[in-house]
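Many introductory courses stop at the sequence. We go one step further.
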Amino acid sequence: MALSQKPTYISVPSSSREGLFQPGLQASGQSPPEWWIVDVFFQKNPSIDWILDVDQQGRVYWLQAGESSKALAEVENVIEWLIQKDAKRNESIAVIGGGTVLDVGLFAASIYQRGVQKWSLPTTLLAAVDAGIGGKNGVNFKGFKNYIGTITQPDFVISDFRVFQTLSTLDVLNGWMEMTKHALIADPELWNTMKQFKTIPSPKAMHPLIEEAAAIKKRMVEADEFEFGLRKTLNFGHTVGHALESAAAVKNADLSHGVAVGLGMIFSLHWSATRTEHLDIQSELIDAAKSIEQWIKSGAPEQARTALQAADCATLWSCMKKDKKNDIRGVQEVSLTKIGHAVWNQPLSFSEFATCWTKAHEGV
């Protein structure tokens, strides 16, 4: 099935000497967007210096990144600002930021006056390979992840890898975890390359890998835009990951999305290993889990420990039962039959979860 609307993807050459994202905006052949929703980080750290000039014109809504902003109240704030600015339906809205900023900003743009032209300009590795591709947007509700939102494709997606040089070690890890997910579910060759790294490389050193990981997401979205089948495999590690995030939020514990998904993938790999009788496949799945554990321990050991201490199996299971991907059969998970091949809608019981969760994280 073809996409309801196929975005125009534009990549800025890393050799460019112009301002961040500017070559991509010019290459679009369009007039610049009239309205901008931008991560407040770039107000305090003006690496995208030209956006400050736009701000002087009163055309920027500064949005705080983070899960606390993924709320209906923040979407209302954005829409109220657009109304105050008399933004028109035939104008366009560009969103600059990481995953949470894109989620909120593009959701607001998709529902404002029933939708306006949308530009997605991801500024984090996670957003560039995952959150900024595919049209998913939305907010959390009553402690449950991404319960309210749409699947609405942006009109333009502009990637500029130069912006990744501003990222923290944790931000790089978050993106690397999503790249890991893409490789494990769909690309054994990409995984074979990634697993050679004992520590996560710098963004500049991984540019080719970023492009490969993003291409996987694009292919899956084009094949299954509204997540009726293949696109569900992109939820690998996310059922447990979202439960960890929900549990951490209740206790005001600091937990990034990438660390949560990484811990979720470690569980899912152990669970997948119990579902095959092939010893070689079992071994490669467990080895993959060990690689992820090593990357998390080297990049965010305190967050991982805090996350695992914030919730027991029963608490996590309670969150997992509310996951929006479930159906009448109960909790549905993604498992791997081998590296590079994932199956979706696999029923998971509490006893299976508890056993594999304990086994997966007994050494952390």
